[in-house]
């Protein structure tokens, strides 16, 4: 009985303080926002994650984790970090798949200011190829089979290479995304 009264008083006090559950629930219809240009997104998310996936073709992620130096919880190398080894490869593959969504947010531009060609059918195809290849890499990483990682990494690489060939010319950065 005493606990029931105490609980009722606490709930009433919370209600008086304006701490209702409705007020604490964040809105679910938040608009997507662009904070990085395509080059920054590539360098910050896709490139590092792809390198983790690609590394697993040649080096056993568990061996890399075992030979890491220093405190794994502070490592900036995903393969040597606290969630390193094959888990890092799984997470990197999922990061690539999720990053495919970021490539389609309206309003993103290339480093030269040109809009990302998100409405172009070829762009959409490369983005889907990235998603598919990334999920293939995720499934392969779960098996811890480097031969499967070679095949999956080739699929990821094909999407990157095709898109770069079409929209990223390193010799003429002014023409990127055009």
What does this structure look like?
The chain has 178 residues and is mainly α. It has helices at 2-16, 21-24, 38-55, 61-66, 86-102, 121-143, 146-167.
- Which of globular, elongated, flat, extended, rod-shaped describes the shape? globular
Order of helices and strands: HHHHHHH
Subunit arrangement of the protein: single chain
Unreliable stretches: 3-21
**How far from one another are the termini?**
72 Å
Approximate strand percentage = under 5%
Number of strands: 0
Number of helices, counting only DSSP H or I runs of 4 residues or more: 7
Overview features:
about 180 residues; globular; about 60% helix; 7 helices; mainly alpha
Quick structural overview:
The protein is mainly alpha-helical and 178 residues long.
Question: Can you lay out the helices and strands and say which pair or pack?
Answer:
Layout: H1 2-16, H2 21-24, H3 38-55, H4 61-66, H5 86-102, H6 121-143, H7 146-167
Helix pairs in contact: 3-5, 5-6, 6-7
